[in-house]
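Cross-posting from the modeling subforum.

Setting up a comparison between two proteins and wanted a second pair of eyes on the formatting. Protein 1 (sequence, then structure tokens):
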Amino acid sequence: MELFSLIILGVLIVISPGADFILVLKNSINHDRNSGIWTAIGISLAIVIHISYSLLGVGYLISQNELIFNLVRYAGSTYLIYLGTKSICSASAQIDITEQDKDKIKTSNFFIQGFLCNALNPKTMLFFLSIFSQVMSLESDDHLALFYGVYIITLHFLWFSCVAILFTSRKLQTHLLKIKKKLNQACGAGLLIFGVLLGVTS
């Protein structure tokens, strides 16, 4: 039952709205489905970093060092504020992106955005530290921790890919285009708020 509870907790954490969700949504509606999926891939691979230092215990050391922890926290906060401000400022941009314009936008940009958005979030770091301390306490077995790590990575990829696919479906596109400016502003404000809260919350 303890492992089952952790599995359910993983699902709840992944699907709860946060900076990652807003970023995938923003990139999907502003560019295309592929952009949202590449953002999801970046987020998923960033999870590997959190899992790695959680298992190695490095995250615990960072969380106990106020200077290092604050550097990570402010870096993540600054990045989210940057993304949010950029989204708000470009909310009135042209709705349609031509194929020529799409070709100029490198998919690596969306991958990097997703990767940094997740990797620079110290709250995600503390979440994984607490979760993996529970996983390791259930059974002294590296295979169990590895299984749970792969499970969390897969959950992130599947969920955020579904978000990208859902919000780029033709049925939703017609409605989303009508409110794109407000949606962009809302996404930008959400990222900005998350960034500010991350910076001021100890």
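Protein 2 (same layout):
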Amino acid sequence: MSLGQHLRELRKRIVFALIGLVAGMVIAAFLTDPIIALLTHPIAVVAESRGNDLAALNFNSITAGFDLRLRIAFAVGIILSAPVWIWQVWAFIMPGLTRKETQYTIGFMLAAIPLFFGGCAVGWLIMPHIIELMSGLVPEQGALFLQYDYYYDFVFKLLLVVGIAFVLPVFLVALNLSGIVSGRAIFKGWRIAVLVAAVFAAVATPAADITSMLLLAGILIVLYIAAASVSVLFDWRKARRVRLDLAGPEA
């Protein structure tokens, strides 16, 4: 394909992806009320525990409610339209891949997507505990009015960071397949991996919530060990193929 043909193909894929995104946002627009109810449930728990109504989501402008719904519709629309835009990305790069690269890429996608959503689910589970524990530090004489945009960004970034953290083991396997790092080297770095997982879990969860911190760190360590084990298996298969090639047809 010429450069012009590539650009036209890219434009077509982007248009299809945007159509999927808009369709997802339209569907998500009808789900904003229950989503907002779920998002604000931890605040209601805090208000009940304080025994007053001085804990609420604060909207400080006339258009704030619309802005929050638009943000939620966009985020949920991206999730709902993921099969569409992921396929468009894949359809654009697939013609330039070999058969083996295509198989590896499909495997990475099948592993990365569930891990990302699994990480988001874990982030969603620990999110209420973080809000409740941090809100407990507010003095009884104070009022906890959470700015809507800050609150949304906090929840969205938490889910995004934990989701991406769950996908990192897939990139370790990709580096192994690319010959950049061996499975044995990944295993040797387990001390650093445990330290990084513990620090990340400590930062992502409140210091007082030991259970959530240990749960998140434990999951990350298990995923790291799984990635190292898969990499060792791939290294063994590569070495076996090399031995068979050297042995020749008689072997």
